[in-house]
Specification:
InterPro entries: AAA+_ATPase, ABC_AA/LPS_Transport, ABC_transporter-like_ATP-bd, ABC_transporter-like_CS, BCA_ABC_TP_C, P-loop_NTPase
Structural class: alpha/beta
Strand content: 15-25%
CATH architecture of one domain: 3-Layer(aba) Sandwich
Strand order of the largest sheet: 6-7-8-3-9-10
Shape: globular
Pfam family, one: ABC_tran
GO molecular function: ATP binding; ATP hydrolysis activity; L-isoleucine transmembrane transporter activity; L-phenylalanine transmembrane transporter activity; L-valine transmembrane transporter activity
Largest sheet: 6 strands, mixed
Radius of gyration: 19 Å
Enzyme class: hydrolase
Number of helices: 10
Distance between the termini: 32 Å
GO cellular component, one term: plasma membrane
CATH class of one domain: Alpha Beta
CATH topology of one domain: Rossmann fold
Order of helices and strands: EEEHEEHEHHHHEHEHEEHH
Helix content: 25-40%
Length: 256
């Protein structure tokens, strides 16, 4: 049996008078692509932001790789082993493509501030290794030829790939993708699907929030559907598509 990478249960979150989440939980097994879908305002982004440390939950328990973690800050969650991308791409626009990935890799560095200031042999060796690993990841996502370009000069689809490369640079147990297909054309979506599929085949575990239901149903092993901050359904894509509550709330009469 595959082991559980992420186990989240009993998550609630209120913003003033709005109950954004009520007792929500998911369980993701190693090597799965797990989808989180729902209508606008369903609470999926709030849940995603709670898991990744952007919001502090009012209640809930969290385990990553069998160990408890507390999602109180994004950088602490990254150290724990969850890397995320954002719906609105957040790259260092004036840095090179290579430097953007190197920034992600620094989460796993050992050389301290003094070593960096003094540029010790240990620091230089580590920087060289970081640059080499960053280049490998750019090759992996298919944009190595742009390594020396400024990040802002990349096409929209390639900026998405860069964000994924930077997330992978942290060596995450779980990579969390927030609307990665948003704004993409049909060709870019096909390429994105191929990349996510490759990441999964290489043993990574992925949590995916996505409005493109066709993409989710074609990629994901399991799916959770949220509606008004509550868990409406959970199961395989086929099970979810047949669920009458899901059809009524989200997928439409035809289930598409």
């Amino acid at each position: 049996m595959t082991d559980t990478i992420l186990k989240v249960s009993g998550v609630s979150k209120r913003f003033g008078g709005l109950q954004a989440l009520s007792d929500v939980g998911i369980q993701i097994q190693r090597g799965q692509v797990y989808g989180l879908i729902g209508p606008n305002g369903a609470g999926k982004t709030t849940f995603f932001n709670v898991i990744t440390g952007l919001y502090t939950p009012d209640s809930g328990t969290f385990e990553l790789g069998g160990k408890p973690y507390v999602p109180t800050a994004v950088h602490e969650v990254a150290k724990a082993g969850i890397a995320r991308t954002f719906q609105n791409i957040r790259l260092f626009a004036e840095m090179t493509v290579l430097e953007n990935v190197m920034v992600g890799r620094h989460v796993r560095t050992r050389t301290g501030l003094i070593g960096a200031i003094l540029r010790t042999p240990g620091f230089k060796a580590e920087e060289k290794a970081i640059a080499e690993r960053a280049m490998e990841l750019l090759e992996y996502v298919g944009i190595a030829k742009y390594a020396d370009y400024k990040a802002r000069t990349l096409s929209y689809g390639d900026q998405r790939r860069l964000e994924i490369a930077r997330a992978l640079a942290t060596d995450p147990q779980l990579i969390a993708l927030d609307e990665p297909a948003a704004g993409m054309n049909a060709t870019e979506k096909v390429q994105l699907r191929e990349l996510i599929d490759r990441i999964r085949r290489d043993g990574r575990t992925i949590l995916l929030i996505e409005h493109d239901v066709k993409l989710v149903m074609g990629l994901c092993d399991r799916v959770t559907v949220l509606d008004y901050g509550k868990q409406l359904a959970e199961g395989t894509p086929a099970e979810v598509q047949r669920n009458p509550k899901v059809i009524e709330a989200y997928l439409g009469t035809g289930g598409h």
